[in-house]
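Could you join me in thinking about how sequence relates to backbone shape in a protein? Would you write everything just below, so we can both look at the same thing?
***
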Amino acid sequence: MRERRGPRIVDHGPTPSPYGDQLESHLADIERLRVRASQLLAKHGLSIDEYAAIFSAQHGRCAVCKNHETSTFRGKRRNLTVDKDAEGRVRGLLCDACHKRIRSFEDEQALLDWTERALGYLR
């Protein structure tokens, strides 16, 4: 007796989306936003809406130097960093350069002392 075989199936690869690459790009953006929202909540206790409100109030610029973020990671521009005081209260959003400078000081007094010495030197 012969074995009965089903219809022959030919794989032509993935079916192209009627939306093209736009859908994949949109879904990737949604996933990045979801990940960013969970990171903000876990690390800083901020919702994505709270971050967006601060970002909007600062016009998308660093609270210190007033520039847009320019540093990149894996070819993409970084988000502004959430800056908090010693008690964990959010002060604002900083670019990577300003955030690193401020974090290099132990406390606010050390920063003020350094700034005073630097201004004296520059005069």
User: Anything to note?
Assistant: The beta strands are 72-73, 76-77, 81-84, 90-94. Residues 21-44 form the longest helix (24 residues).
